[in-house]
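Data availability excerpt. The first of two example chains:
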Amino acid sequence: MRISAAVVAVIVLVAVGVCRAEVYRYTDSKGELHFVDDISKVPKKYRKQAGNTESQGNVSVMDATPTSASPQGRTAQEPPKQQITSSGSANVEVFITSWCGYCKKMVRFLNEKGIPYTAYDIEKDSVAARTYRELGGNGVPVVRVGSHVVHGYSPEAVMSYYNEGK
């Protein structure tokens, strides 16, 4: 009986140690966000910027700077705006959540195509959440391209509406 209690105690201590593993994040020269579990895995030139995610609160891939186009930010009090960008193409707004894989794919797609967009996290921004509901949001991502709304991950539809607005 004493042996099994000792074994359980060792397992619990090991589990607690594993659960408290540190995670570091850094952004490379291409703008890609990386997460590693050991500071020695961070290239030396990025170690100064590498931070422990525990001290940074919740971290999301959506926090990374896009590689091709940077989303324009706004405060929670500003309503989403219907604008035409300087190139004359339709404004693109993406309503997302930080945990959604298809949202990340949509943002990656927009970055790869060089399409300027504004991303709104509907879980962190009450104005964006209200706009999302007004657009008939019932899942994420929801993309508004000019006056057109695309529900779900559909890069073909987004490209079609974006090219139509040029």
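And the second chain:
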Amino acid sequence: MPDVRNCKRCGRVFNYLGGYQLCPVCKNQDEDDFKRVKDYLYENPGATISHIASELSISVEKIKRFLREGRLEIAEGDANLFLECEMCGKAIKTGRFCVECERTLAKDLNTAANQITRKVSAQDDVKSPGLRYLYKETDNHAKKDKR
């Protein structure tokens, strides 16, 4: 069953497939904005977020989202007042988590996945009853076979 939602930006109804809740039109606009930011940074390496936002008329929040998505990175040595790890609050350059918290999350996810795998394997070892076809006189296939 399709997951139908309203676009967070324009309100249009669309078939949600995952990720940020934007309709295809708004997603395409975001991609165009990202390309503009990327091209601008190629020509002006090390530009600040506020400078990019004012030059390209793109919101600071959208540029922050590109940083959180790991599509942009704060340049080496620049003061980071914009991006913090969502777990520990440490200043980061891109993404949602610092390196240490990413390691911890990965370790925890691997542990959980291994536990689930062991439980599923243990359940597979227990024989569950199989299925069989019940022969009934009212069944159309049975009537054809008797003729």
